[in-house]
Design goal:
By secondary structure, the protein is an alpha/beta fold. The chain is built from eleven helices and ten strands. It has helices at 22-27, 68-78, 105-116, 148-165, 179-189, 210-216, 236-248, 262-271, 282-293, 299-313, 323-327, and strands spanning 38-45, 51-53, 61-63, 82-88, 121-126, 169-172, 198-203, 252-256, 276-280, 317-320. Strands 1, 2, 3, 4, 5, 6, 7, 8, 9 and 10 form a ten-stranded mixed sheet that branches. Strand 5, helix 4 and strand 6 form a beta-alpha-beta unit. Helix 8 (262-271) runs parallel beside helix 10. The chain is globular, with a radius of gyration of 22 Å. The termini are far apart.
């Protein structure tokens, strides 16, 4: 056996010197993660009292308006600065009118949250899929496809009603062409020139949305959304979508989902100067929680690593169902 004590090793760098203690590791850590980076999604159901568990998303609930004060208190205690709201209306129709009703479920919820905690940043998702009887993101043409241009004024009206209710940030997720321009013009004309737009600029047609569609009751009744959401194979097109939305007036942009598209997130971060968000979507959450509940993964380390990877790839803000779960440990 070779006696290493007698062997003169060539020079090599000892990277482990900077890993030898938790204090040193903390000092040289390149990526930080804090509650201030997180946005917590909420599903608010009209007519619901209390909470209703979402079976496909362990630990997440649909909630009634009566639960919003408690949610606002929890978020303030945990240091989470923002929520993203999704509504489940009492009824649906072909035009998704519940989305832009001034007394709609999300509009009511915004008012309640701002009363409970005026400092809470409320982000309003702008899309019609939760409100249409057919589950698509706008009114339909005779061939069953979404009528892009007929959808734009409905999205714009939705944005205005959310802003009137006190929404701090408007977040269009529909992926219609020209929606940012339409929303920006409508907000400015209605006196909300200071309300920013966080555009779901690179939203991919993904298998990882399945639990969300259960939670929000938003699954399409026929077909799919590949005609307007992005092809998962296309990164250059994602950059074009992002550039288009910024040119139309988006103040911030988003990549969705996060984990299968960290490469796209990195490219977006390297090319734009505006803040960048990433959505750690329902399927990403659910598969991780399923593994955790089965004892296959360590909960704390797995969630830490997941959220850190999204930050490291370039996200300034992370929309995640893990927000409260993670922040409670900080």
């Amino acid at each position: 056996m070779l006696d290493w004590k007698t062997v003169e090793l060539p020079p090599f760098k000892r990277h482990r010197r900077l890993r030898r203690s938790s204090g040193i590791r903390s000092m040289v850590r390149e990526t930080d993660l804090a509650p201030r980076n997180l946005i917590y999604p909420l599903f608010i159901e009209a007519g619901l009292q209390g909470r209703s568990p979402i079976l496909s998303m362990p630990g997440q609930d649909r909630i009634g308006v009566d639960q919003l004060n408690a949610e606002a208190d929890d978020l303030a205690r945990l240091g989470i600065p923002a929520v993203l709201l999704f509504g489940l209306p009492v009824s649906k129709d072909d035009l998704g009118s519940g989305a832009y009703a001034r007394d709609g479920i999300v509009q009511q919820s915004i008012r309640r949250l701002k009363e409970a905690n005026p400092e809470l940043v409320v982000v309003g998702d702008v899309c019609l899929c939760e409100y249409t009887s057919h589950g698509h993101c706008g009114p339909l043409l005779p061939d069953g496809s979404v009528d892009n241009d007929a959808t734009l004024p409905l999205l714009a009206e939705t944005a205005v009603t959310l802003a009137e209710a006190g929404c701090d940030i408007i977040a269009p997720s529909d992926m219609m062409d020209g929606r940012v321009t339409a929303i920006r013009l409508a907000l400015d004309s209605a006196g909300f020139a200071q309300t920013p737009i966080l555009s779901y600029a690179a939203k991919f047609s993904s298998a990882f949305y399945g639990p969300f569609r259960d939670a929000a009751d938003s699954a399409p009744q026929f077909g799919d959304r590949r005609g307007y959401q992005m092809d998962p194979a296309n990164a250059r097109m994602a950059l074009d979508e992002v550039a288009t939305d910024i040119a139309e007036g988006a103040d911030m942009v988003m990549v969705k989902p996060a984990l299968p598209y960290l490469d796209v997130l990195r490219q977006v971060r390297d090319r734009v100067d505006v803040p960048v968000a990433a959505y750690n979507v329902s399927g990403e959450y659910s598969m991780l929680m399923a593994a955790i509940q089965n004892g296959w993964l360590d909960e704390h380390r797995a969630i830490d690593e997941t959220l850190t990877s999204i930050r490291r790839a370039g996200a300034d803000m992370i929309i995640t169902y893990h927000a409260k779960q993670w922040a409670a440990r900080q």
